[in-house]
Amino acid sequence: MANLNENNALDFRNPGPISDALLSVPGFVDDLRDHTLESGYSPNKVLAFSGALAMLAHLSGRTYRDAHGTRTNLYLVALGDTGIGKDEPRRVNRRLAEACGAGATIADAMASGEALEENILRSPSLLLQADEVETFVGAMHGSSKNAQGLSDRMRRLFTASAGAYSLRATASTGEGAVVYAPHLTLFGTGVPDEFYDALDQHAVRNGLFGRCLVVRAEDEYRANLPTERSLPPDLVKTAKALVELERRIDDSGVLRPIVAAETPEAAELLRRSAEANMALRKRLAEANLPSARALVVRVNEKVSKLALLHAISADPAAPVITAEGVDWAIRFVRHVTEDMLFESQFHVAEGRFDALVKRFVGLLAKNGGQLDRRTLMRKLHVDHGTFKRIALTLHMCDMIDEERLDARKFIYTLKNAA
Fold first, then answer.
1. Beta pairing partners, 186
2. Which region holds residue 107: left if phi is over 0, alpha if psi is between -120 and 50, else beta?
């Protein structure tokens, strides 16, 4: 995953597009993914799969856990360029929620931490579907009180899914209000560069970014002429059963979720994955890459969540965590984490100049390792003086080569990044 070479321009390499093999979970997720693909004008498998996975994470909230106490709440972000079909998964999820009487459990935006808590009090299982998620993330690391409060509550709610969450006392929440096993799922969509540009060191190192699974969707350039089809009856039936199961458990007054069985082979795979990730965390700490280490800290938790969702999708009535499900979860999380590490190294910066330096490197890395000065200046939106400072900084750090072709044309090449 990490190069960790002292004389390398890149710490992390591009894993490339996610494979179709990772965009399949038998049962509910595949069924909802396929329906979404058929119903949109610009079908995109990554987006349809991400929306379906987030919907199952939401519908299974508070009702399932594994033997280690893991719950199914996810913070899932799907990124893609404008016009590739980001609206359709959100629309289908809302239709399905309304069809099973859970329309009030979906929110489209959240302005503050207080608003988030009020929604969680009304609906302990909440799906937040945030379009232009870069604006949402950007607001969370701002200096305003609302921004800091939203970021803090997002982190606390993620961790509190297996316990209790104490709300701030307000007129609407009441003094001393407590929500048991709060289940917040985030399904955000946005544009890749804008999302990563919205991050800063604080958002990464405080663990918010590390709690997310950020999936990148490529434009499939497929057109579809959808017809307004009803949701598949079996899909609605399963969704209704999941909603009713949570209501029965909640109304009982004793939150006793179903514990998914775990095969010995699955348990061994989880153990080996945890050991490998601990070794990676140590390497990142020794290489003095704290932002990267903060990102991989929650890899084991993500693997467990996805393995549990794989089991629920296949058989909601009697879920079993299998070696097949764990293997898929490990490969999915590994790919997503590698992509997050690759992208964040070009965007997460200490200040404006550092951000420009990293963007310069990112532009080279994503364009075959080489670009001319005119193209770089146009994409960076900087004046000639600032550009010279950036190039000089990178040249002194032995990260780029500069070649002069004539009086006006210069070529910049990223060193040792192949």
1. 75, 128
2. beta
Check: CB of residue 161 under 8 Å from CB of residue 182: yes
Round to whole Å and give the CA distance between 398 and 417.
12
Q: Which amino acid is at 376?
A: L
Pair 297, 206: CB distance under 8 Å: no
CA dihedral 286, 289, 292, 295 (to 10 degrees): 70
> Each residue of 48-85: pLDDT tens digit?
999 999 999 999 989 999 999 999 999 999 999 988 88
Distance separating alpha carbons of residues 130 and 108, to the nearest angstrom: 5
Contact 313, 75 (CB under 8 A): no
Identity of the amino acid at 260: A
Q: Are 243 and 100 in contact (CB under 8 A)?
A: yes
* CB distance 39 to 151 below 8 Å: no
How far apart, in Å, are the Cα atoms of 242 and each of 187, 246, 247, 336?
Answer: 19, 6, 9, 28
Cα 93 to Cα 344, 359, 367, 404: the distances in Å are 29, 35, 36, 54
**CA–CA distance, 51 with 33 (Å, rounded to integer):** 8
User: Which of 363, 309, 373, 278 has the alpha carbon at shortest distance from 9?
Assistant: 363
User: For the segment 262-278, what is each residue's pLDDT rounded down to a tens digit?
Assistant: 999 999 999 999 999 99
